[in-house]
Predict the 3D structure of the following.
Amino acid sequence: MKNSSNGEDKINTNDLKWSLRAAYAVFIRDLIVFRKDIRGNLMRILGQPLFFLIVFGLILPQIGFFDLEYIKILVPGIIAMTAMLGAMRSVGGEIAISFDHDQEIRAHILLPLTMASLAIEKIIYGTFQGVFSGLAVLVLAIILFPDTFTLTATSLVFLIIIFMATGLIFGGMGLGIGSYFEPPEIMFEIMFLITMPMMFLGATFYPVDMVREISEILYFFTFGIPLTYVSESIRVFITPETAGLSLLACVIGLIVSIAIFIPIGILGFKKRAIK
């Protein structure tokens, strides 16, 4: 029995090793595809944030519609929003289109890897997209407003960790949306309906504590939006005087969101893959 048990352990270990190798190969392939279209990806990532920053950060404050200090509130929210969209769209769109049209994901399923491993690979790729998108907009904001933000090596490290958490949350959410809803046209409509409230009510254009003066209901509703904790945690590190939540509250919100959306994404993907 002991030998038999060791044999089973050895087989399981070998299966895990091959599964991880296959998942790593798929991840490298995704990175290569991303790099080959780097110009198009940069346009996709920076296009919307650039116009938000120019209009709301430069033009409207200069003509007196917003206070000049508003840029300190705006930039963290735009960074958070872009990281969210980068992770969610890259995973959800790829999954939905691949299952329904080019069947690429079916070819990946035939590889020697578990469905959970492939799902986690997609979430990790979404995490990469979230980090890349967040850093790209951060650099853009520093170029446009060089005297507004003070960025240290320590705060940069923490920001990268926040971007990673953002990618995990919204990569998992994108995986779930792309898996549960079909065909792709329906999936993109659902994603739009989900992202729009988060983009505007996830503390992107204002600190969360200011909402309480307007509506208690809206204030507590904001806490149910995961983007709120991303926006506020970024404020903590680049414009701490504008943050409406403590870092501890942000960390708890990010951890809870990760614990909710990664399992949802994995379960949805596994259910879709065995159809």
Notes: The two ends are 37 Å apart (CA to CA). Residues 2-273 form one domain. The chain is about 80% helix and 0% strand.
